[in-house]
## 1
Amino acid sequence: MQTFFQQIINGLSLGSIYALLALGYTMVYGIIKLINFAHGDIYMLGAFWGYYVINVWHFNFISALLSAMLVGAASGVIIEYFAYRPLRHSPRITALITAIGVSFLLENGMSYLFTSNTRDFPQIIKQVNYHLGGVQISNIQILILATSCILMILLQLIIKKTKMGRAMRAVSVDADAAELVGININWTISFTFALGSSLAGAAGVLIGLYYNSIDPLMGMTPGIKAFVAAVLGGIGSVPGASVGGFIIGILETFVQSIGLSAYKDAVVYFVLIVILLILPAGIFGKNTKEKV
Amino acid sequence: MKANFKYNLIWLIVMIAGFYLINTLILVGVIDSFIANMLVTIGINIILATGLNLIIGFAGQFSLGHAGFMAIGAYATAIVTQTASSPVGFYASIFIGIIVSIIAALIVGIPTLRLRGDYLAIATMGASEIIRIIINNLKMTGGAAGMFNIPQFADWPTVYIMVCLTTIIIVNFIHSRAGRAVKSVREDEIAAEAMGINITKWKLAAFVLGASTAAVAGSLHASYLQTIAPNDFGIMESISILIIVVLGGVGSITGTFVAAVVLGVLDTVLQNFGALRMVIYAIALVMIMIFKPSGLLGTWEFSVKRLFSRSKRKERVES
């Protein structure tokens, strides 16, 4: 029972990183129906930014996190402006390839500029382990969980309560109708990218603290896992992405703890396929009826 | 059959002429082993991409799991030719690879092909990753280190003939009754069903055919390169096949050929740039997509028949 709770704690910390990334995927997908493959690389940019400012400018954790979110947001908006905006009315598969191209560009550009070596992320917060009834939890895990929960609640508030959030929801339901009632579509889409990418930037700093190693290709696998999480939760649905992220994280740590770590990804994909077969639009996805 | 005899003959002559052209160029020494290597890679990519184009462009099913079927073919060849190291063993291994990948495609396809769009893409990607992870953990396949010293039976004439064969099969499939059924599924599933077309059956047919050609390409890849590892067949490989299809134009076999050649040459030229290679490649990819969103050739298809009828029409107008 103790190991069970221990795995839950580990799974939740990993899952909250996936959830933060999955939120970006799901928001972008909801609004322009694009699988933003470059999202995982924005997370990498966030981690590198955190590494840089902590080492060179001696930022503390909070300011590193916030500045990484700003950098993430800015890079998301720039990528959207230059790479995705010209393709808004082309076939979706074209935009997908462009996204893959941007992802290659970020990964290889960063490897070119900063070499592809793995770096040690500076440990600005000293790890302290707490023991609660035999379950070990570190302050970094608490920090990751708390930060991601705060960010998710903030995101939910922005989407549900603000004017911009209402515009985002309107554009994702029907972009043309939203434009007719006076919503600036370009601005709204940029804002969505900024929000999603800032979460990825935050996730980058958090994972740097948790695993304390970063490299230019670190975004690839978590990016795909987070996308799987977004699909699992029902792509386009914000609560679905969070739930999907936690499910994937917990599933992965459990499979690892029962000694099947070689098959950990296979189990994740298998569960994904099974869930998609039962619920073709994911857990929280809206099942649209077919109309003739 | 008779009506198209002339055009089929022309295609046959084009294929044989192409074969002899490359053969002479190699004999003369214009094509050195470096370029020959590039040609073989292009050929294998053409086989992979035409198969994927059949699934994505003609059947309209967004599959991201092509590398998994390629892996099956590659490992079939690697395992079989290690015990039966002869040309017969090699061709038998291609056959075994096709059979196993058809079975895998059926297992993957029957449940997942009812999903749509990106859900299907992610499910097929997951299935192909599962295949890769299983290969990665089996003893028979050499685990994560992969297999090496695979006897080389696939030289460039084998690859050339296989490119011709798979292209003929796929193009004929597209132009047959089956192909029209598959295209109607792509256009409108409900309307196709109303016309009495069994949509599951035709989706699956295209998927299985695409998967079996991927297995052939995998066999050639394993036998030509002589070393394979599970990581060669990951998501990135599926994506690079997808890039060829989209760059050439979804739904254009000619476009797939052009894109495979362009990317193959680009890759070889960029070898000189060292570390900047992938950066330039990525920028080129994004630029082509932004300025030519429908791919290099769109849905345009080269057709000898049309070429003839057009020149005939011109003659009639002139006289």
## 2
Amino acid sequence: MSGGATMFTQQRPVGFGFTLLIVLLYVFLLVPLVTIVGASFTAGLLIEFPPRGFSLQWYREFFARRDLVDGLLLSLRVGAITAIVTTIVATMAALCGQALSGKRSGWFQLGMTLPLLVPELLTAVGLLFFLFKIGLGKTVLGLQMGHILMSFPYAYVSITAALRQVPSSLDEASASLGATHWQTFRMVTLPLIMPGVVMGAIFAFINSFDLYTISLLLKPLGGNTLPLALFDFLTYEFKPTAAAAATISIVLSVIGVALVQRLVGLQRAF
Amino acid sequence: MTLLGPSGCGKSTTLRCLAGFLEPDGGEIEVDGQSILATPSNRRGFGIVFQNYALFPHMTVAENIGYGLRLRKCSGSEIGTRVRDVMSLVKLTGLEHRMPREISGGQQQRVALARALVLKPKLLLLDEPLANLDARLRDEVRWLIRDLQQQSGITAFYVTHDQSEAMAISDMVAVMKKGRVAQFASPREIYQKPVERYVADFTGEANFLSCRSLEACGEGRMRISVGGAELDVDCVASLEPGEAAELLLRPESLQLATLGEDVTFRGRIVKSAFLGASQHCEIALADGGVLKLTTPPNDPVRIGDEVGIVVDRSHAWLMPEGTE
């Protein structure tokens, strides 16, 4: 579907300076990634680039360490639940936002994206107090709630954008043919916004996987997410195990982006 | 029947109230004597065809048409037969597996029509269904809609701002003005015997001459004085003698004539245009009025000529003076 638009895009002549700028930008963005991935395969004992020889020993070391693997598993679990719950709630919120009109819709939009606008630390402190008040302080459930809150806007924005592409006359046509609201949602709306929903879920997952500040404050007793475990690890040791862990995170993110590309097409995602 | 009116006069709003997408501020909507205001749109059983077709883009043509049947839990084979039947009715056979974006606008509108008709609705609501089609397709789909409506016997409620479309397609036309029905009658009556200037103006080319009504001369007839002549013409029934009135003369009820014969008006040609099949000219009358009329293409028409005009009195129509 997106092919139709690009087919008619004219190729504009691009100056040398502009090309150079783009190249530098990419270098700037990619150097840390390339460095860390490269360093993770080193045969030496320190994080260094270029790597000294090639070995998988630091991956072995990573999977041998309980604290890091537990962190990875907790991050995966929290991320997966975040993706699922966030997507469902964000879909409902987006439908609600669409039903509102004019000014109220603007305020609703603002409210739904508030976690993006308020500094993460503030949200985290607020949540910490709240969770202790309701007896969920320092529990996995509390951490989970924090992650859902922080990832919600990403899913919401993506699903709202998809919903805006669905003309309201389709709802009306469906109703006139005898469909209930639920049937219309299931057979017309949901299939049409599915790309946005999938994208929202993947972004929610990636975001949750990366959260640091809020995890630090809300983490359960004795439990660490991967970013926290990694930071703890780096405080005492400077071994390429950290690079291996980072590479694993990068791979997961890349898989996410590849899924978006595969299912939706990146042009439509942004 | 058709709701006819300029944009913003409330015809689409009326249709949306009927469909149940809008709740009227007041009043009542009844079907067979029963109020349907409390019935949600999905249980009204009306078929609706939208201006922008509103096909489901993720379903094939056949799936679009079968959508309503699937909701009604019809068996697969019954859906298959009914979809096939209605598709041959709207001449779409062979396009079952195409997606809506792969077919033309005219075909899309026929799919929309089929999707509504396959459910045998009590009432078919059409909201400017031809507005997005080009002129040639518009004619084709218009006749198709008319034929289907006649065959199926389903009452159709048609909204348009195009008067020729309205007249060609409907048994009854309601001309709307600012949210109210100005006149509800057959196309012939709307055109020939409009109740007010607004209706006459909206239904086609028209000349209006203000005149004085002198005396009634029989049921619905009035003697008037206009442009130096006295005529007996048909008039709106409620018109009283002595009231200020306007005489409606459609261009086709006027004929050019040489002076001296039994002419109704005298005037001077001020504008003319050759249109191929006919000529269009405007004639200024002695009292300042202007008449537009069409003449056969080979009539000698020169600007500045003094001419006479013969009025076909059976097609002249007297209305109360417009309030606009």
## 3
Amino acid sequence: MEIVLDGLPLARRLTRASALLDITGLEVRYGGIAALRGVAISILPGQGVALLGANGAGKSTLMKAIIGLVRAAAGEIRFDAVPIGSLRPDRRARRGIGYCPEGRRVFPGLTVAENLAVACWGDVARKTDEMFALFPALAARRASPAWQLSGGQQQMLAVGRSLMNAPRLLLLDEPSLGLSPLLTDEVIGRVPEIVAGGTSVLLAEQNAAKALSVCDVAYVLKTGVVTAHGPAAALAASDDVRAAFLGG
Amino acid sequence: MLALQLLFNALALGAAYALVALGFVLILNATGAVNFAQGDLVMAGGYGGLVLARMLPVPGVVLLPLLMAGMAALGLMVALVAYFPLRRRPPEAVFISTIAIGIILQNGTNILFGPELARTPALLGDGEFRWLDGVGGGLVVSAQSVAIIVVAALLIAGLHLLFSRTQFGRRLRATAQDREVASAIGIPVDAMVAATFAVGVALAGAAGLLLARGFFVTPNDGGNYMLKAYIAVTIGGWGSIPGAVAGAALIALFEVVFPALPALVPALGGPAFSQNGATIVLDALILVILVARPQGLFGEASKARA
């Protein structure tokens, strides 16, 4: 028997109460077109969550709606049980959300060390050392302007930058974009380590197999709607998901 | 010896122009919009120095920090009135709004001070140093020129330290390079843009005080300084900070050397080699650069997003 309280199943209520990020009924429109409709997502503390979907499914839009770069037309976004939907992006970031945008977007004229420093409101030297430990390839380039780095190094820098303020939730948008399989492993392979450190991760990826292998739970987006969600292992085994994303 | 004298004069002029151009390029980078009031803000700095000097009879160098603080406040007002309400409009809206600010400043100073030449106090004093008297006419160096070079160098060095050594300065640069991502990693970008206006206009004001001793100031001077800032930034590479300084130095060198060419090369002569002639050649040159090398003489690779 399912217990229902105030219109919500009890199990769902308990999840909401303990969720780090809880999104309900989210709708985002670009002009007249709905990019996201009725999206509901819940992320627990210390959970790695994959966000799967084809190009244009709305993964990046969802990431931007969470950090506040696009405005929601409807729905609610709660972080730590507090509604954050009306806050500016910088306020959301300072509350503990790290954002690593699609296409890396490091600050090209800033050095590697400066790219990391600008995103830190704590002990800059200590956090910088932590990032160099996580991505040793960056340490040797610390004084280089970011535009001189290779694509893979820029991606590591973008991930490092989004971790500098010790976020409790990290939004990783398509970190494998334009990277070789080896570098993809290098970057996405760090996700379990980041999650083990206590940071929840929402990983948007077209490379579904890779994302499912490092996450606990997954959501599938299709033309702006969540079409499936569940444990990563179950989704990896599901015929529908395999057909849609894993090449059958 | 004449060449050395010209070089020194050009250095003093270029140092002041560099402050104008730096203020211009900082605001350009932070907002993507051209602040066409920059020249009139230099002029306003000249009159600001004049007003301060009437209240406090002290050397210009003491007035400078007060003036820069006042001009920074004026910069915040310019941002509030002419930039923030229009930032989601096309960049042309900010062109027009800053032109309007410039015209208001120009006519406002005309009402308050009249169209006559005005002059700010010297930074330290009006003395002259004469060096190498026996050699080819010697080198005459005014205390004001030396003070201009030192003050501008200190301001530029201070700016460099601000941008490279402080979190605040690095975040200003990050905001200028990618405002959306800057906000998404926690930087309050509106406050950063407002601060950039404060710094940029404070630099214009400092230049106004520096220039309005030797070159005087009238309410109509703004357009001239505006054009110089624009040319310096175009020569130096749109958006490049070192380029703006180099561009300003080149303009000053040209303005000082061109009218003096007949004295250096006796074969040259005639009315073309004058201040007016220099202005014509400089503006013709800018047309050539815009067409032939739109990235400027020192176009910066780091502006390209990899």
